[in-house]
Amino acid sequence: MTRVSGLDQPEPGRPGGGQDDDLRALFGHSTAVFASLAGPAHMLESANPAFFAAIGDTERSRTGLPLAELMPELAEQGLIGLLDRVYRTGQSVTGRDRRVVLGSGADGREAFFDFTYEPRLDAGGNVTGVRVIGVETTQVRQAQRLTAEQAALLEQIARQAPLADVLHGMARVIEELAPEEVLVSVLLADADGRHLRHGAAPSLPDFYNQAIDGIAAGDGVGSCGTAAHRRQSVIVSDIATHPYWADFRELAEKAGLAACWSTPVLACDGSLLGTFAMYHRTPRSPQDYDLALARIFAGTAALAIERHQAEQARQAAEAREKAARADLAFLLDASTSLAHDLDATQTLQRLADACAPALAPLCAVDVVESGRVRRTATAAPDAGRAALLASHIPVYDAADDAVARVLASGVSEVARRTPTGPGPWHDLGVTGYLCVPLLDRGTPFGTMTLLSVGDHTFDGHTVALAEELARRASAAARNARQYTHRVTLARDLQAGLLLPGVPEVPGADVATYYHPAGEGLDIGGDFYDVFPLRDGRWAFMLGDVCGRGATAATTTALVRHTARAVAPLLSGPQAVVEAVNRALCDRPGSHGTGFVTLVYGQFTPTATGLDIELIRAGHTAPLVVDAAHTVRAVDASGLLLGVAPDPHVSPRRLQLRPNESLLLYTDGLTEARAPDGEQFGDVRVAQALAGSPRPPAAGSLIDSLTDAVRVFTGGHDIDDDQAVLVLTATGE
């Protein structure tokens, strides 16, 4: 006999589902039993149908026999003795929740009763028999025990006990408390709901559990597969004859299984969580009690499974979050390292160091330079393997080389084997590789190759992390190359605006110093020059152009080249400075409008020193340092150049005797700041010069001054360019 029905659905006319009905089925309806016994032999005269239903055997459902003959099992349980006492004494006997075994052997069943034995009296008050009145409480008692066990299971679920423990305990509870022998199984659905996996089946043989582990959820695939597919309970009362079990009949026979009732375990949203099955060793159809039991414990299983899945989802989310934080921390640390300085080679070496061993045991970085591949960086666990890896240079246009292919395609390549093409793969123990392109505006300029050894492999997560790191490293390397190119360009331009070298000047020791502000990316506005004139005379200048960069360079070039062009043609420093001022005032607006401060002079070496005539145009006052290291400022006045047609400059003449020096400097030195913001100032300039070594020399004066500034600023970057020019008379 087979019964298939949607028992998880409420019956028509029963709103809100069948849980209340299930509970009523479990607790049952208390049924009163009645029997009338006569004489000392307790002859059964009459009984109601509930009495005969309770004793459970149709052959015993008759009257006219002594009760001890009809139900011999009662004597050894003391119940016949109680009847004798009531008959003998005329006193009633009452029992509460008395356990009674009805029947014997395999046909016996345990039952519980509340009962009263009371005497039957005739008109004269004599006892003629015993009247039995009782209520069977077996079903209520069983349901209460099941409810208590279910509460314990719910407490386990609330404590987040392991799912296997909850399901195993649930199966054991049902098996121990069910009125008849039953074997419980719980199967769990895969995430896609297409297959069922072993969950718990403590009493089924291991070979059976292993055989059905992973069965498909499909129509006609046993009781459980069909219930999972239909999302309805499936009752197979006789496995031996039912078509659903055609593929599993021999397995069930080997396991001693004859009936299987399977109920789907469904989530709140109706999705499949698994199945709850009750097996029997003899063909059997379920009663209402059995169906209610299945539904209630399927709900308990659903709660346990959903709680387990929610906990797994929470743990998975935490693991993903932790992994994401670790990835972000790794990328941030690596990015910080890559941006540590603006040297392209060092950037790529830091890339290799970041990858090994974090992403792979070995790493090599190759770049293309002048049509050839150059191995720029390597990282390995020891120096020997690092040297071996560094000795291998890929071939740029080799079709069998992974680096060449990635350079050509711009697409990452990953494999669980050694790279194609020649290389020290055997000596390094390489078992796999990941080659990622380094791109500059979409064009590969190099590759990062990660190499596996031993059991290490590359998964999708590692590939994605490596590609992101390569992207950041490519940007850092591009910035470093651009920075290097810009610094080189700025230095080349700056060099063209300064002396290529200090000239040899008869009778004078000449020294210069120039230090640009910042990182040297912009052309500075400070400049100096020393060049020869006719008749043994020499010209010198030091100035400061307002601003920095290309516009400042244009103005610097205009001042220097104008001075060099007109100095041989004009009578003296004043005429040269006035010519420079006219050139600045007449320049196009596109060439800049900034002013210039300048000290320009001419000197003639003599036997007694240097005869100097100079012009100061708005610049810091020159300083004279005599042989005794006394420092004094040269008093000369004049306006800024490039502001007004007439700068109102006037020449100042002086003579430097042997071992005396003239020092010109820009305000980048006096305005240099200590960490607390205080400026270096003119007084400290004089003190530094006064404390310089003796005998005085042009170079030692500059060293004393710049060292003092460096100590004062604490070695911090300066905010303005610094330039110094020193002329020291030698008398030679």
TrEMBL record:
Every copy of the GAF domain together lies at 145-315, 350-487
Q: Which GO terms describe its molecular function?
A: phosphatase activity
InterPro entries given for it?
Answer: Bact_Sigma-Reg, GAF, GAF-like_dom_sf, PAS-like_dom_sf, PAS_4, PPM-type-like_dom_sf, PPM-type_phosphatase-like_dom
Name the segments for region: Disordered: 1-22
Instruction: Give the stretches traversing the membrane.
Output: none
Q: Which SMART domains match?
A: GAF, PP2C_SIG
Q: Give the domain of life.
A: Bacteria
Residues of the PPM-type phosphatase domain: 508-729
- Classification via Pfam families: GAF_2, PAS_4, SpoIIE
Going by the UniProt record, its keywords in alphabetical order are: Hydrolase
Q: What is this protein called?
A: GAF domain-containing protein
Biological source species: Streptomyces seoulensis
